[in-house]
């Protein structure tokens, strides 16, 4: 019928806009997730190991348990600006 639209008649611009919106939302969510993980310290050990392997390949990185023990001991020695 003339004058009626079918869902398949949606032009490429509408589909492109929907894909762009989906990509932007995904990128925003990924950025927010990264930020929260950094603030909470979730990636601290992984970052430490990556640094040790690239900057000091001749020495073995600390175990995760030893890393956190040292990390918290360092925070106690040098509190810096934190609330507690």
Concise summary:
By secondary structure, this protein is mostly helical.
The tally of helices reads 3
Q: Kindly name the structural category.
A: mainly alpha
Q: What does the largest sheet look like?
A: none
Estimated radius of gyration = 24 Å
Question: How far do the termini sit from each other?
Answer: 70 Å
List strands and helices in order, with pairings.
Layout: H1 12-40, H2 44-55, H3 64-77
Characterization of this structure:
This protein is mainly α. It has one domain (14-77). 65% of the residues lie in helices and 0% in strands. It has helices at 12-40, 44-55, 64-77. The mean pLDDT is 85.
Features of this protein?
3 helices; single chain; mainly alpha; elongated; 84 residues
């Amino acid at each position: 019928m003339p004058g009626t639209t079918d869902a398949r008649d949606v032009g490429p611009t509408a589909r492109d806009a929907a894909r762009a919106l989906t990509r932007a939302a995904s990128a925003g969510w990924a950025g927010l997730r990264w930020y929260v993980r950094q603030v909470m310290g979730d990636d601290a050990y992984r970052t430490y190991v990556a640094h040790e392997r690239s900057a000091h390949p001749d020495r073995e990185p600390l175990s995760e348990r030893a890393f956190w023990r040292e990390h918290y001991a360092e925070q106690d020695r040098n509190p810096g600006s934190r609330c507690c």
